[in-house]
Amino acid sequence: MTRQHPLFILVLLLSVAGISGCKTVARTLGNPVITNNHQAAQGLIGIAGDQLDPSSRMLAASFANIDNLSLSSSFGRIASQQLVSAFAAEGYQFVELLLRNNVYVDQNQGEFLLSRTLSDISAEHNADVVLVGTYAIAERNIYVTARLIRTRDSIILASHDYAVPYTPDMRRLLRPERW
């Protein structure tokens, strides 16, 4: 009986560790910004339907400020990355631009695909679809539009609008100079 006792304690400890890990995940997913970004990805997947093949190679650009499309922020970069996380969890394949040095990457602005044609991007990175987005800052919310654009013909496969609360965290992430 005493030999089973240490095994019982080990199983109990592992169970408690697993439960506490779930609380951390639940807290992260309960964050309204992360939740809204993940739901936006699900919305895009649903809207695109059969037009979006999970085996398609995809790129993601930092989301840009609608009032100045050459300007992004930490929020624009993280919003894009959080959508990518949700897409990847569903089995979609993204080419990581942060690891490539032949795409324009400005340390203060993020990866922008606005100044280049989609056909150039498609050829250079063998990408079928690009995730792009814009955001507008209002008094209480940040309004975001995320789109999936097919690179071969610039057709919008899906577009999803959503809002995230304009909290002190968001104010900090929206500062132009974060570096």
From TrEMBL:
Domain FlgO, residue spans: 39-168
Xref: InterPro entries: FlgO_dom
Pfam families reported for this sequence: FlgO
Annotated PROSITE patterns: PROKAR_LIPOPROTEIN
UniProt-recorded name of the protein: FlgO domain-containing protein
